[in-house]
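As a warm-up, study this chain.
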Amino acid sequence: MNRKIEIRNNLENVKERIAVAAQKAQRDLADITLVVVTKTFEVGDLEILYALGEREFGENRDQEASKKAEQLPEDINWHFQGQIQSNKLKSICKWADFIHSVDQFKYAKIISDQCQIKPMSIFLQVSLDSPVESRGGIDPIKLENLASEISELPGVSIAGLMAVAPLGIEADQAFKRVQMIHSNFKHKFPQAKLLSAGMSGDFETALLYGATHLRIGSSILGNRYLSE
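Now compare it with the structure written out below.
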């Protein structure tokens, strides 16, 4: 089986699973965005995805993603979803359309300074871990204060929240909690309608609990190249 057929078949399978889960949750497919996580995969794979109609790609390394963005069409929406490093943000702001992993004010301030002309859409990453904040993300107790501070910054738009299900915890339990956090958050920040949650192993559960952006990589592209 050649690579194009493999990716096409995997993509069709994932989209069918999304459709089934959306129907089960009584949700409109138009409200759900598939972000294909393309980190560590070659530009050729992204070109196949583009030819198949995909326009939402997720990356987590600036050096890799900035090169891909230069080689691929401008109508792609690039999602940065990795751990943020302050010294990389200036470059990330040049190619990314969404940043999914903001969990500190200092990062939002740098983004603000870089995005005065075209505001950057960000997701605030919420920690579901125990101990809290052990793998990135902000303690849910601190979330509203952080959002209030960031809301004062020009050039930054809080699109919603992002979360990763903790290891060793049932996805159902994790995403039910995220849904509750997001529901409460939207009362104070009604513009933050989006929820980035769910990956290859748990996206159907995340969708049931309100995820709008599903970050799916291995179910579409297979195992990552270990040399990266």
